[in-house]
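Tutorial sheet, problem 5. The two components below are modelled jointly, 403 residues in total.
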Amino acid sequence: MEIPYTVSARPDTGLYNAKIGIWLFLASEVMLFGGLFSAYVFLRIGAQPGYWPHGLLNVPVGTFNTAVLIASSVTVVLAWASLKMRQFAQYKIWMGITILCGLLFLIVKLTYEWPAKFHHFGVFIKKEALAKYEPYLGNNYLEAKGLPERVEITGDVEDEAALKDDTAKTYVFKAIDAVNAEPINPESDRPTFLPRPLVEKKVVIDKADVDYASMFYPRHSAYFSAYFLITGLHGLHVLGGLIVFTYFWLPVGANLYKRNPEHLANRIEVAGLFWHFVDLVWIFVFPLFYLL
Amino acid sequence: MENEPSHAPDHDTAHHVNKHVKGYLMVGGLLLFCTALTVFLSYVNFGTQKANIVVAMALATFKAGCVAAIFMHLKSEKWTIYRFLLITAIFATGLFLLTALAFHDPIRLNF
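Model answer (structure tokens):
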């Protein structure tokens, strides 16, 4: 039995059915991401001064990924336009580029951005011990300038395996972030566009002075738990879009095109609407997590 | 008959779509420019962190609007879709209002 109104519009709605379907789905997606973003707002407003990190993500890489996603939104709409003009070869090229852009986005995220975080360590110093670590925190300087205090020291630990040793009395850094190495340098006041290199410096922190310590995992802070959850869910959406695009890029698409080119055009339009939504979510994720 | 195949492009549709291709490329360029602008402005000190957030979110909303209006064709869509989105917007606004309510102080009667 043929499914009705996959190509022609239903007289009462004026739309083919899949378009109604995808918009209903996208409406539910707005509520899904809306819930997560409102949780972000809630956590951020409720965070104590110094406990909402800034400048821990790589902005040039994030900017690059944003540009890649925007480019893929353009190419997917061009793939759809090619089908509407019955230029199948053009469609294959634009859709191929879209798939490559999506893959590039995921590769950057999963092989570079996330793993780099998993090897970065941070210790939150107890309130009463902040003065002891003043050379790495610069809170007197920050107070004089009216800036929020620093409570965390971050960098690379000397021996990651030693973190499992509960008998150890200290955390030992082999290199610390520039913001802790030069806390009273005005360059450390605000995050910089280019990440500043770590400074080789052995820093020993007494565990007794530490409130909480963790690699940059979701458990590190409300910030990183929101970051990994939202970018992870977004990444899953990118993967979902890629699977659909690849399906229609393979011979399945060519066969459908031979049977009814408008049907393929409609399917690509619907998949494209999903892809644009994924791009739209990233447009908010990027400044909220990377820049602000 | 429903879903009848049409192998040749509908001349009007093809012409219409072709006319829009240049627009899609221009919007893509505008979005890339706005991304660069967002990054640049995030390093400009607008006085308070709040002001920087407002500027970045205003730009992000403009970019999202471009994607929705042009790439997602909401500029000229059927009323059925607008109705869906209107209801979604009402519920999404309610969701964010709930977050605001969480910070409401009933004793001092302010947010």
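Marking note: Chain A touches chain B through 57 residues (CB under 8 Å). Full credit if you identified this.
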